[in-house]
Write a structure and sequence with these properties.
The protein has one domain. 0% of the residues lie in helices and 68% in strands. It contains no helices and 9 strands. The chain has strands at 2-7, 10-14, 19-23, 32-42, 45-48, 55-66, 70-76, 81-87, 90-101.
Length: 102
């Protein structure tokens, strides 16, 4: 069984037991979180729209951390202008515990 869940403006394919890295969510390690379900696929087939309005995906926050650093380098040719900058995007690791109808 898998589901497509929505978080912010992004969609993720998840199954029970998956650990997903979302963009930073508010909450401490150990907090429970809940996501809207857009599609559910199980042994009975695929359900979408009104059929999944009652479904929710429940998870637990495992970590609040940052991805590894990426380097942003800007320059203008023949002008001796160079700018080097680093960025680390924060994320929240969530373990999906269950996908069920309420």
């Amino acid at each position: 069984m898998y589901a497509i869940i929505e978080n912010g403006s992004k969609q993720y394919r998840v199954t029970e037991g998956d650990v997903i890295k979302f963009e930073k969510l508010h909450g401490e390690v150990g907090d429970k979180v809940e996501f809207n379900v857009l599609l559910v696929s199980d042994e009975n087939g695929i359900k979408v729209g009104e059929e999944v309005k009652s479904f929710k995906a429940h998870g637990e926050v495992l970590a609040q951390d940052k991805f590894r650093k990426i380097i942003v380098f800007k320059y203008k040719a023949k002008k001796q202008i160079r700018k080097r900058q680093g960025h680390r995007q924060p994320f929240t690791a969530v373990k999906i515990e269950s996908i069920s109808a309420n």
